[in-house]
Amino acid sequence: MVGKILAYLVCLCCLLGSTFAYENPVVNNQCPDPGVFLLDEKTYFAVTTTVNDSQVDKYPMRISNDLVNWTQIGYVFNGKNTPSWAVNSFWAPEIHYISGNYFVYFAARDKTGRLCVGVAVSQSGNIDGPYYDPLGAPLLRNASVGYIDATVFYDEPTNEYYILWKQDGNGNSPQIPSIIFAQKLSKSGTSVVGERYSLIQNDLPWEGAVVEGPWLIYNSPYYYLFYSANAYYDQTYCLGVARSKNITSGFSKFPTPIVKSNSKWIGPGHCSVVNIKNTNRWEIVYHSWLVNYVGGNNDRVLMIDSLLWENDWPYVNTTSPSISQQPNPI
User: Fold this and answer.
1) Hey, is 2 helix, strand or coil?
2) Between the CA of residue 24 and those of 43, 206, 264, 306, 318, what are the distances in Å?
3) H runs (alpha helix) in the chain
4) Which of 41, 81, 82, 119 is most buried, with most CB under 10 Å away?
5) Has residue 242 got a pLDDT over 70?
């Protein structure tokens, strides 16, 4: 009898382990620059970069009920609805709900080769589109430096939307600072208003020439600005965080990366930070290379880890991607 009970417990543990635990990566194929948010009470939505410019379909979309198991449901652009000004380098998309509709913000090169931030709007009012370009031109463009990595943050106390993006200074020759900017976004979602604010720039040694991929959350009493730093194609790429009690100024950086490479995962970066509904728990979703499969045509796969908190700073256990089974976030 004791043997049967032990055998049952072993089987139960195996079952629970397979049902209520996961191991990175959660999507084991190309998922760079994931933009992730909670769509409704139980559905999460992700959209990611298109790596191959020759691919007609741009920005794959996925849904999940648990942040672990993902199903692809289509693409933002299918060739017929791709904005006419956007030529290549379809990077870092995010979809946000603004004033009763869904908007995708993305980076692409225009016909002059300049990296710009664009916007497209759901024609159906549904998150899976189809999306169309309401402007016929980029939303954000600078004649002398590229703009990429747009994200949108809704500030509930002020009922204002902000768009954040990166000045791609490391892409200039000679290089100029990489800067994360913020500016109010109109309620229409298709124009910026008021003053532009500089939040952070690359000024710590481990950041190299780059700060990019911003993502902003509020967890009282601070606004937290998550960002990526250094070279995306090697082990120096990592995730950092800064905080401020003011959404447009005064950000101080945590002095070291909060997620960096380890023996298995190389160059973790470009994150979204997602709240688990009706809790004060947060998950960080990001991409990484697998060791020995870094750069070039190798996949940046989809990863997830829990955020922990100490002295009002977020961190990830071991300061690197998890390499063993973890409890499911939901």
Assistant:
1) helix
2) 20, 25, 10, 12, 15
3) 2-20
4) 119
5) yes
